[in-house]
């Protein structure tokens, strides 16, 4: 009986609620329940993008059409910085850059294969303008530098070869040899050319003897009458040397003499000092033995050959000119020649080759030690003469000495000055120089 009653009460409550809506009579309850009105914000239109600068856009477009990529790149960068990039032009720029980069690279590689230095430089410069920020491939500068060095080397070789030719024509054989040495430093094979100027002969004891080629020719032997210090036996006459010969670059050294199984008897001992205290006979005998051992034809030079080689094409009192200085020869510098300056008196020999050579590369032709010649001393025959050997019919047996020594005045060292000694006498400042006849 209770369940129907409860149901009846619930139905009555629902009716009252729907009918009278009692909650609407309570203000604060009503306010909390009612939804707030929805206010819609007005929709604003998006701002239009800025227009690219017409001048820059035109400049970029024209530069691209003309292939001026750096100019186009600059204009497009300015447009991009202004917030107005032009993507389709930047894409076109990238494509053209790649195309031009490949073309310039191909041009450079072709020029490098052809060793065309000018085209290589042009490609390098074009690449530097094309993309100055990135620059060129790393090895381009190296390749250009290598080719420039090779080109400079080739030009230097040609120049030196021309110098050698001219020096030989002018009979400046020492200068020709120096130019050949510079060529050798450039890895040029100079053996053939040098072989025409210089010979190196091995001596029995293991040392070597350096000889220089003396070409045939004509010269005036003796001295003019007005030459200071001239002696009566220096009468001028024309001499023709019909065959060239090889002559020692220096006097025979003490070490070379020992290498020839000879005993050194010198005042100033030293392996590179010139041999002293040797007689004409001893020198001749040693050369005869050397001929038998080597199969060569060694001998002393004739007086004409010696003066011809000493002068080396000059006509002045000395091979170096009108005067003689101690920087050129080892003599008593307290007594110079003519207007020459005074110098030191060394009072002994110097190692051979210590001073400067003459034009044909021969050292110590003036001073250091007197040098034996093949000839017996005699007055000159009347010229012109060909290959003279003096004194064969002259009575007194004395042989010619030339060149002067360390203890002599400058005038005694003149090219034309003659002296003489007995062939068996040893003298403290006398040595000799070797001549080898050509094969």
What's the architecture of the largest domain, going by CATH?
Alpha-Beta Complex
The overall pLDDT, averaged over residues, is: 86
Structural class determined from secondary elements: alpha+beta
Largest sheet, strands/sense/barrel: 5 strands, antiparallel
Q: Largest sheet, order of strands side by side?
A: 1-2-5-12-6
Please provide the ordered H/E string of secondary-structure elements.
HHHHHHHHHEEEEEHHEHEEEEEE
Instruction: Please tally the β strands and state the result.
Output: 12
Radius of gyration, in angstroms, nearest whole number: 52 Å
What is the general shape?
Answer: rod-shaped
CATH structural class of the largest domain? Alpha Beta
Describe this entry's structure for a reader.
The protein contains twelve helices and twelve strands. It has helices at residues 2-20, 27-33, 54-66, 69-81, 87-113, 117-130, 140-169, 173-185, 191-195, 254-259, 280-294, 303-311, and strands spanning 198-202, 208-214, 217-221, 237-241, 245-248, 298-299, 370-376, 385-386, 399-402, 418-421, 430-431, 435-436. Helices cover 39% and strands 11% of the residues. The chain is rod-shaped. It folds into two domains: 58-137, no CATH class; 197-436, paralog of FGE (formylglycine-generating enzyme). The N and C termini lie far apart (164 Å). Strands 1-2-5-12-6 form a five-stranded antiparallel beta sheet. The longest helix is centred in the middle third of the chain and has 30 residues, at 140-169.
Overview in brief:
This protein is of the alpha+beta class.
What's the topology here?
Blueprint: H1 2-20, H2 27-33, H3 54-66, H4 69-81, H5 87-113, H6 117-130, H7 140-169, H8 173-185, H9 191-195, E1 198-202, E2 208-214, E3 217-221, E4 237-241, E5 245-248, H10 254-259, H11 280-294, E6 298-299, H12 303-311, E7 370-376, E8 385-386, E9 399-402, E10 418-421, E11 430-431, E12 435-436
Parallel strand pairs: 4-8, 7-11
Antiparallel strand pairs: 1-2, 2-5, 3-4, 5-12, 6-12, 7-9, 9-10
Helix pairs in contact: 3-4, 4-5, 5-6, 6-7, 7-8
């Amino acid at each position: 009986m209770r369940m129907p009653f409860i149901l009846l009460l619930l139905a009555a409550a629902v009716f009252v609620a729907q009918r009278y809506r009692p909650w609407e009579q309570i203000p604060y309850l009503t306010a909390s329940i009612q939804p707030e009105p929805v206010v819609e914000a007005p929709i604003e239109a998006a701002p239009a993008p800025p227009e690219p600068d017409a001048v820059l856009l035109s400049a970029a477009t024209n530069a691209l059409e003309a292939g001026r990529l750096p100019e186009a790149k600059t204009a497009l960068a300015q447009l991009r910085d202004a917030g107005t990039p032009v993507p389709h032009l930047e894409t076109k720029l990238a494509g053209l850059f790649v195309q031009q980069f490949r073309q310039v690279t191909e041009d450079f590689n072709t020029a490098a294969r052809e060793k065309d230095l000018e085209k290589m430089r042009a490609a390098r410069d074009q690449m530097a303008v094309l993309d100055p920020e990135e620059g060129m491939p790393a090895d381009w500068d190296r390749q250009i530098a290598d080719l420039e060095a090779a080109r400079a080397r080739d030009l230097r070789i040609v120049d030196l070869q021309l110098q050698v030719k001219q020096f030989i024509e002018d009979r400046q054989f020492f200068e020709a040899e120096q130019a050949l040495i510079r060529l050798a430093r450039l890895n040029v094979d100079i053996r053939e050319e040098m072989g025409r100027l210089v010979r190196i002969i091995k001596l029995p004891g293991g040392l070597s003897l350096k000889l220089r080629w003396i070409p045939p020719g004509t010269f005036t032997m003796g001295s003019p009458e007005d030459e200071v210090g001239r002696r009566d036996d220096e009468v001028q006459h024309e001499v023709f040397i019909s065959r060239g010969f090889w002559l020692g670059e220096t006097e025979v050294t003490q070490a070379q003499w020992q290498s020839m199984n000879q005993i050194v008897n010198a005042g100033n001992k030293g392996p590179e000092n010139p041999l002293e205290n040797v007689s004409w006979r001893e020198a001749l005998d040693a050369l005869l033995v050397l001929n038998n051992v080597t199969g060569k034809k060694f001998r002393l030079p004739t007086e004409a050959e010696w003066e011809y080689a000493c002068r080396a094409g000059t006509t002045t009192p000395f091979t170096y000119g009108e005067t003689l200085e101690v920087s050129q020869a080892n003599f008593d510098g307290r007594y110079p020649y003519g207007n020459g300056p005074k110098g030191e008196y060394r009072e002994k020999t110097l190692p051979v080759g210590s001073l400067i050579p003459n034009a044909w590369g021969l050292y110590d032709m003036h001073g250091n030690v007197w040098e034996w010649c093949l000839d017996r001393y005699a007055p000159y025959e009347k010229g012109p003469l060909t290959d003279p050997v003096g004194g064969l019919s002259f009575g007194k047996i004395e042989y010619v000495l030339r060149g002067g020594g360390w203890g002599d005045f400058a005038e005694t060292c003149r090219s034309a000055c003659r002296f003489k000694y007995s062939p068996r006498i040893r003298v403290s400042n006398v040595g000799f120089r070797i001549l080898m006849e050509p094969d």
